[in-house]
């Protein structure tokens, strides 16, 4: 069953709101200790990229990359204003690299994904 694009876009919007709202809460300070914070960043932003890629039907991979990268940058700027939090260029770099890698994988396998979707409709 194919999910509507709006489902993926709603998921991406929910993740973005949760990032900025949750990141501003006191419990967010030290939530992920080093080096697990880098893993959390990579998984979070890769997931955001996947949701946006499917939400746009894979039509605008560069835009998806730019949006995810911008959200990562805004997150770091936001953190720089919060008590107990700091902006980290390496967090932003990991956010951007994770988005780039997952979008590249999706683009390279776009034909396979489309064939699987077509096959599901035939069964």
Account of the 3D structure:
The chain is mainly α. It has one domain (about 5-25, about 40-120). It has five helices and no strands. It has helices at about 5-25, 35-55, 60-80, 90-110, 110-120. Helix 2 packs across helix 4 (about 90-110). The longest helix has 20 residues, at about 35-55. The model has no long low-confidence stretch (mean pLDDT about 90).
Please describe the structure with a list of short key phrases separated by commas or semicolons:
mainly alpha, 123 residues
Portion of residues in helices? over 70%
Percentage beta strand: under 5%
**Average pLDDT figure:** 89
Oligomer: single chain
Low-confidence stretches: none
Rounded to an integer in angstroms, the radius of gyration calculated over CA atoms is 16 Å
Overall geometry comes to elongated
Q: What's the total count of β strands?
A: 0
Coarse structural class: mainly alpha
Biggest pleated-sheet summary: none
Distance between the termini: 11 Å
The structural domain count equals 1
Quick rundown:
The protein is mainly alpha-helical and 123 residues long. The protein has helices at residues 5-23, 36-55, 61-80, 89-108, 110-122.
Provide the fold topology.
Layout: H1 5-23, H2 36-55, H3 61-80, H4 89-108, H5 110-122
Helix pairs in contact: 1-2, 1-3, 2-3, 2-4, 3-4
């Amino acid at each position: 069953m194919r999910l509507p694009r709006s489902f993926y876009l709603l998921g991406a919007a929910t993740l973005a709101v949760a990032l900025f709202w949750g990141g501003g809460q006191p419990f967010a300070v030290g939530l992920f200790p080093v080096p697990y914070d880098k893993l959390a960043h990579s998984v979070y932003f890769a997931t955001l990229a996947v949701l946006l890629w499917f939400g746009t039907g894979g039509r605008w991979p560069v835009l998806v990359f730019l949006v995810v990268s911008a959200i990562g940058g805004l997150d770091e700027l936001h953190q720089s204003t919060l008590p107990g939090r700091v902006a980290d260029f390496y967090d932003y770099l990991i956010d951007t690299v994770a988005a780039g890698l997952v979008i590249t994988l999706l683009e390279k396998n776009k034909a396979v994904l489309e064939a699987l979707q077509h096959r599901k409709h035939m069964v």
